[in-house]
Specification:
InterPro entries: Acyl-CoA_Oxase/DH_mid-dom, Acyl-CoA_Oxase/DH_mid-dom_sf, AcylCo_DH-like_C, AcylCo_DH/oxidase_C, AcylCoA_DH/ox_N, AcylCoA_DH/ox_N_sf, AcylCoA_DH/oxidase_NM_dom_sf, Mycobact_Acyl-CoA_DH. This protein is α+β, with helices and mostly antiparallel strands. The protein has three domains: about 1-110, Acyl-CoA dehydrogenase/oxidase, N-terminal domain (Butyryl-Coa Dehydrogenase, subunit A, domain 1); about 115-220, Butyryl-CoA Dehydrogenase, subunit A, domain 2; about 240-395, Butyryl-CoA Dehydrogenase, subunit A, domain 3 (Up-down Bundle), CATH 1.20.140. The chain has helices spanning about 1-20, 30-40, 60-70, 80-95, 95-110, 225-240, 250-260, 265-295, 300-325, 350-355, 365-375, and strands at about 115, 135, 140-145, 160-165, 175-180, 185-190, 200-210. The strands form two sheets. A four-stranded antiparallel beta sheet has the order 2-3-7-6, with no helix packed on it. A three-stranded mixed beta sheet has the order 1-4-5. It is globular, with a radius of gyration of 22 Å.
Length: about 400
């Protein structure tokens, strides 16, 4: 306990020093975040010189609370969720010293936004069936293929990319993981308009894109191993985020309930109470998951939270429409725009209802995640589910 208090006191002094050197109102947010990174207060569990201090991960929450209380600016965390939640821990685990020095700091500061070039038209849930090819040409790799459902590709500077480098090998063994510069020749981004009317997703076409071998992340042919680190962190980042009571989609639904007493019914009240309890259970479970992550690497438990996140969002947004009646059928704006973030709480009920439909697909389909939970959390044999003829371990996404 005394050691922990000493660490917190030291961190408090470091936070005060960063805050004292910057005007949080009129100063440059990027300069502030550069200073925070250099002070080791970006990810305290990362090594010194890479945004951290080599401390236990659970101390990050203490640091974040101090900065939040002081009114520190955000580092584009909603826009760069892929970079902060998925790319950074993958680069830390598999990147070279040069890659860590090159990418982690501008990723943290929000100067460089990242996207994820994994899924393909014929390889979504069965990600290992991907067909994008990378062929070695001297010190470069020449990449050709198509990716789809790429969030933020229209404003991202870099992408994490999976490509097949040894097509003669079994599908998991012939994959390599790359960093792709989205501004390079041959990278074409096309919008995918969604049921909401917006296009936050994209399809990306790669035509003779040259990627230097220095942008390969991990060993050649070891892309599947690297990708699983990314995917585990993805599920934690989606399902394990800290949420206050009545946070997320529950907040506007509860507010709608309070503001429309004339539209309440016993049946809707019963459903709302059940969902409220489930949301609280999920919130506390996410807290336990964050504690486990703080003690080591994320495991398959993140899949449980991701399933719960999708189910609750869809059930709550559907209940809100029923509560609003005909008012819930109105939709604020169908203009085709390309947003840089998803804002459930700041939009109307119609948007929440439509956008929540994608929650059970993006970040790993609920069906595939249930298989992961069954095998890796509950320890159920494949035969117990009657799936012995289906290679479920291939279905990672």
């Amino acid at each position: 306990m005394e050691h922990d208090n000493s660490l917190r006191a030291d961190l408090g002094r470091r936070v005060e020093a960063v805050l004292a050197g910057h005007d949080l109102v009129t100063g440059d947010p990027v300069e502030f975040h550069r200073a925070r990174f250099d002070a080791g207060l970006a990810w305290v569990n990362f090594p010194e010189g890479l945004g951290g201090l080599g401390l236990p991960r659970e101390l990050q929450l203490f640091v974040d609370e101090l900065f939040d209380a002081a009114g520190a600016p955000d580092n584009r965390s909603q826009t760069n969720g892929i970079g902060l939640g998925m790319v950074a821990p993958t680069i830390l685990a598999y990147g070279t010293a040069e890659q860590k020095q090159r990418f982690l700091r501008p990723l943290w500061t929000g100067e460089e936004i990242w996207c994820q070039l994994f899924s393909e038209p014929g390889a979504g849930s069965d990600l290992a069936a991907l067909g994008t090819r990378a062929v070695r040409d001297g010190d470069d790799w020449v990449v050709n293929g198509q990716k789809v459902w790429t969030s933020g590709a229209h404003f991202a500077r870099f992408a994490i990319l999976l490509a097949r480098t040894a097509p003669s090998l079994p599908k998991h063994q012939g994959i390599t993981y790359f960093i792709c510069d989205m501004t390079d020749p041959g990278v074409e981004v096309r919008p995918l308009r969604q049921i909401t009317g917006e296009a936050e997703f994209n399809e990306v076409f790669l035509t003779d894109v040259r990627i230097p071998d220095s942008y390969r992340l991990g060993a050649e042919g070891e892309g599947w191993r690297v990708a699983n680190t990314t995917l585990n962190n993805e599920r934690v980042s989606i399902g394990g985020q800290p949420i206050p009571r009545e946070g997320g989609v529950l907040g506007p639904v509860a507010r709608t309930w309070r503001e429309h007493p004339d539209k309440r019914t016993p049946e809707l009240h019963d459903r709302l109470m059940r969902l409220y309890v489930e949301a609280e259970v999920s919130r506390y479970t996410a807290g336990r998951l964050r504690q486990k992550v703080a003690a080591g690497q994320p495991g398959p438990e993140g899949s449980v939270l991701k399933i719960s996140f999708a189910r609750l969002n869809q059930a709550l947004s559907g209940l809100e429409l029923e509560l609003l009646g005909e008012d819930g059928l109105r939709y604020e704006d169908w203009t085709m725009v390309r947003p840089d973030k998803v804002d459930f709480a700041g939009r109307d009920a119609g948007y929440r209802y439509l956008r929540a439909k994608g929650n059970s697909i993006e970040g790993g389909t609920s069906e595939i995640l249930r298989n992961i939970v069954a095998e890796r959390v509950l320890g159920l044999p494949v035969e117990a589910r009657g799936d012995k003829d289906i290679p479920w371990k291939d279905l990672e996404r």
